[in-house]
Write a structure and sequence with these properties.
The complex is a heterodimer of chains A (77) and B (818). Chain A is an alpha+beta fold and 77 residues long. Chain A has one domain: Ferrous iron transport protein A (FeoA) (SH3 type barrels, Roll). Chain A contains two helices and five strands; from the N terminus they run βαβββαβ. A five-stranded antiparallel beta sheet of chain A has the order 4-3-2-1-5. In chain A, a hairpin with a 6-residue loop joins strand 2 and strand 3. The longest helix of chain A has 8 residues. Among the domains of chain B are: 168 residues, P-loop containing nucleotide triphosphate hydrolases (Rossmann fold); 93 residues, no CATH class. Chain B has 33 helices and eight strands. A seven-stranded mixed beta sheet of chain B has the order 2-3-4-1-5-6-7, with helices on both faces. In chain B, helix 7 crosses helix 8. The N terminus of chain B is likely disordered.
């Protein structure tokens, strides 16, 4: 299973599943991070955490631990 | 244009007496504040929302058809589902739930055209509030340059005919159009087209509506509030459940009195949290039955609705992030990113510590001048004179002197924030904060804390979790604020540089600045992991497009922070200063003065080998007038010329020095009496009484009194040390006399009788004490207001204990080994 946390830097994919009830996911949903949204892992911070993800012409940071529960279907390389 | 009875229009509830209120709502970084500043200019006023310490800003515009309109700049937010107090206040203000703040008459939605979809999500939620809406599309110039077309007329009609205008707040283009749509919204009162909910959502809202009506016997809250109950997973923040009072009572219903409580006590029968939860569960079950996840439904349906609205209105979203991406590949680079961050911080601190002293000198002279000006007025009433000159003017001056540092720091903070870099700093720093239970958002408050704890604590309001917010506010005072600098400077220049050299001085200064952080982070760990057990802090932060900040916004920001600081200096700080002054002044008995005089004269007589009577005469003759007269006689110059020579101010001034030497016996007497008064004042006696407590740190009663007197403000210790060492209260950290006096100070009693008080370990200990102590009335007051009395008490006890331990450790270890 691929999650946001296991994407490689620069890799893209589509959001397949997230647990909508948690505060982080609530915030992401408000940003328009809905199932089916295309997302790209832009980079991780110099100390390894958090991550920067890009979707719909915006950039958002998220902790690695939270990214690990967000399921992604990676685009074919 | 449809007439006023059509369903889309609501009658105006505005009473004729007050100016209509228009709330500005929008995403963070949408340019809300830039637009607000551009529209209102300098006709702004600031304050706090009642009951909460969220910064409130409003301003006025003049509209031809309507007259004066009040614009309210609400905090930026992405969704009405509030999670921080900053966001909470938006929903409360829009619903008219804040006491003393009427419900807005209309809403101005500021939308960032570079991200229409997400910005319209909030607008679409706002439509549910049932208030007239005007929409300003900001940054249309940016997207148009990239080939994106927005059909404004079509957009307006898709949104139900609400007025829409394109604007570039930064370039100040389209401001007239924005004024126009605000006027239209107020006169036509047209509502924005609302989303058509799917049946399952409408039914779920009905479950809540009828349930609440049945339970409370009152009309249910409006749709927007019901939607918050249905969609928000956050169960802590249930004050949405408080039905707003029967609408139209005018001055804000009492719902704001009981935030966080799911009851309707003020509104007939109560709605218990259990019933509330039961209704919410039932309603969500209905949504789930309709095939939707109740926690995702709001976003999914609103985004669906928005794509329909935008279809054919705007061409494909164009990418506006090329420049931002390029900058980020450097500024967030694994190696270059942190290096640039450190460099930027170095620039900020260089500004604070090298540039600020220049205007600080002016402020010092201003207050000295004020004191000198006010002094003669009260010549007949020495007590009043002391109150005004030594208490009020000197005390408030001691605070005002930090204004330049605060202004400079806020200049940089506004620059970093408005440009978009602050979010990057939080991104880079998050890992350093996450291990101790905080997140990158703690960075900004801590940076502010280096200028002054008060704005630092106020900056914690963007942190969602109340416990994490209180914990961050608890840590801010550990940052070495500018009030510590005078103590550091005094100790370093008097003791550390003479014995350890310049490098030792610089190193110990840096050590003090690091000490705060080194103590603060483990403290955070203890607090969040052991005591509060806060959930791990989520960290979802937008990295916005980089933008050139507007100078006007930066200046407004600096002005706001300065006026807030000065207001505080004029109220809270002023009263504490007067109290400490009184404790240091009274009882001020004549006997004390008399015995000090006798003792001084005897000492002086002894020193010059003459009788007491003769010595007294000599002291009396050591006046400025006599000096000037004698010098005029010797040199043949006029008294005026001599005075001019004394006043000459270019480094070495032999005349002024000669004057000081000539008048030394008299000023020595005055200072000896002042010192005796301090020693016998209530605070002096108390200081002597509690001195044993500080004995393990090597402090004599004078330092102890200094510590007590500096409770309202750390820097007060320097002036107090000046007074207790018979130098008068005018001593400052750079004063050579004070340094000399401290070096000569010896124990007058106890086991170390005759030995110097200030050894190297004592000097280090005193610096460490002031780095960690909680000697700041203003900070404690703001902690009390933000987090509650218990946090303020905890902060005081914890910091004082740590400070004492550090000072004692320095002294005990230092004395044993060196």
């Amino acid at each position: 299973m691929t999650t946001l946390a296991t994407l490689k830097t620069g890799q893209t994919g589509r959001l397949t599943r997230l647990d909508a009830q948690r505060p982080v996911e609530q915030r992401l949903l408000a940003f328009g991070f809905l199932p089916g949204t295309r997302v790209r892992l832009a980079r991780s911070a110099p100390l390894g955490d958090p991550l920067e993800i890009e979707f719909q012409n915006q950039s958002v940071t998220i902790r690695r631990s939270e990214a690990a529960t967000i399921e992604i279907e990676p685009d074919a390389a | 244009m449809p007439d006023n009875v059509s369903a889309g229009l609501v009658p105006s509830p505005t009473p004729a007496r007050r100016a209509p209120l228009v709330a500005i709502v929008g995403n963070p970084n949408a340019g809300k504040t830039t637009l607000f500043n551009a529209l209102t200019g300098l006709r702004q006023r600031t304050g706090n929302y009642p009951g909460v310490t969220v910064f409130k800003k409003s301003g006025f515009i003049e509209l031809p058809s309507i007259g004066r309109v009040e614009m309210l700049d609400l905090p930026g937010l992405y969704s009405l589902a509030a999670s921080s107090p900053d966001e909470q206040v938006v929903m409360d203000a829009l619903e008219g739930r804040l006491a003393g703040l009427p419900r807005p008459d209309a809403i101005l939605c500021v939308v960032d055209s570079t991200n229409l979809l997400r910005n319209l999500f909030l607008a679409s939620q706002v439509a549910e509030l049932g208030l007239p809406v005007a929409m300003a599309l900001n940054q249309t110039d940016v997207v148009r340059r990239r080939g994106m077309e927005i059909d404004i007329a079509k957009m307006s009609s898709r949104l139900g005919g609400i007025p829409v205008a394109a604007v570039s707040a930064w370039k100040r283009e389209g401001l007239e159009a924005v004024r126009g749509i605000v006027g239209t919204a107020l006169t036509e009162r047209r509502l924005m087209r609302r989303i058509a909910w799917r049946p399952c959502v409408s039914e779920a809202l009905d479950i809540l509506r009828t349930g609440i009506e049945k339970e409370t016997g009152r009309p249910s809250p409006d749709d927007a509030t019901l939607q918050r109950l249905l969609f928000d997973s956050n169960t802590v923040r249930t004050n949405f459940a408080v039905p707003p009072c029967a609408t139209g009572t005018g001055d804000g219903p009492p719902g704001a009195e009981s935030p966080g409580q799911c009851d309707g006590r003020a509104h007939g029968r109560g709605l218990s949290p259990e019933v509330c939860d039961r209704l919410r569960r039932a309603a969500r079950e209905r949504v789930r039955h309709g095939g939707l996840n109740p926690f995702a439904a709001e976003a999914v349906l609103h985004y669906e609705h928005i794509s329909v609205v935008l279809d054919g209105v705007a061409t494909e979203n164009v990418s506006t992030r090329e420049r931002t991406r390029m900058l980020d590949s450097l500024l967030l680079h694994r190696a270059a990113g942190p290096a640039i961050f450190l460099l930027l911080m170095a620039v900020v601190f260089a500004g604070v510590f090298w540039v600020a002293p220049i205007p600080q000198g002016w402020i010092e002279s201003l207050f000295e001048w004020l004191g000198a000006l006010a002094g003669p007025f009260f010549k007949e009433f020495p007590m009043l004179q002391s109150l005004v000159v030594d208490g009020a003017i000197a005390g408030v001056g001691a605070f005002a002197v930090f204004l330049p540092q605060i202004l400079i720091l806020f200049f940089f903070i506004a620059l970093l924030e408005d440009s978009g870099y602050m979010a990057r700093a939080a991104f880079l720093m998050d890992r350093l904060f996450s291990w101790c239970g905080l997140n990158g958002r703690a960075f900004m408050p801590m940076l502010s804390g280096y200028a002054c704890g008060v704005p630092g604590i106020l900056a914690t309001r963007t942190i969602e979790d109340p416990k994490a917010r209180a914990a961050t506010a608890f840590l801010v005072p550990f940052m070495s604020c500018s009030a510590r600098l005078p103590v550091y400077t005094l100790m370093v220049s008097a003791f550390i540089v003479p014995s350890l050299g310049k490098a030792g001085g610089v190193l110990s200064m840096m050590a003090m600045y690091l000490l705060g952080v080194v103590v603060a982070l483990p403290t955070a760990f203890l607090l969040t992991r052991v005591f509060l057990r806060t959930p791990p802090q989520p960290f979802v932060l937008e990295l916005p497009r980089y933008q050139l900040p507007a100078l006007r916004d930066i200046l407004v920001r600096m002005w706001d922070s300065a006026s807030e600081f000065l207001k505080r200096a004029a109220t809270v700080i002023f009263s504490i200063v007067v109290i400490v002054w009184a404790l240091l002044y009274f009882p001020h008995s004549e006997e004390v003065a008399q015995s000090a005089r006798t003792a001084y004269i005897a000492r002086h007589a002894n020193g010059i080998g003459k009788g007491a009577a003769e010595a007294e005469d000599l002291i009396k003759a050591a006046t400025r007038e006599n000096f000037v007269a004698a010098r005029a006689r010797d040199t043949g110059k006029s008294a005026m010329e001599i005075e001019a020579e004394i006043a000459e101010n270019d480094g070495e001034n032999p005349v002024a020095e000669a004057l000081a030497a000539f008048t030394a016996p008299a000023s020595g007497l005055e200072n000896a009496i002042a010192a005796a008064h301090v020693e016998n004042s209530y605070l002096g006696r108390f200081g002597k009484f509690v001195q044993p407590l500080f004995a393990p740190a090597g402090y004599d009663w004078r330092i102890t009194v200094g510590i007590l007197a500096s409770f309202p403000a750390r820097e007060a210790i320097v002036a107090t040390l000046g007074t207790t060492h018979s130098l008068g209260g005018g001593a400052d950290a750079g004063s050579e006399d004070l340094r000399e006096a401290l070096r000569k100070a010896v124990w007058t009693e106890g086991a170390r009788l005759g030995k110097p008080v200030y050894t190297l370990p004592v000097a280090f200990g005193l610096m460490a004490f002031f780095a960690l102590c909680s000697q700041c009335g203003a900070t404690l007051a703001v902690i009390r207001k933000e987090s509650g009395l218990r946090w303020a008490i905890a902060s005081f006890l914890y910091m004082t204990t740590l400070a004492w331990l550090a000072a004692t450790a320095c002294f005990q270890v230092g004395t044993r080994f060196f």
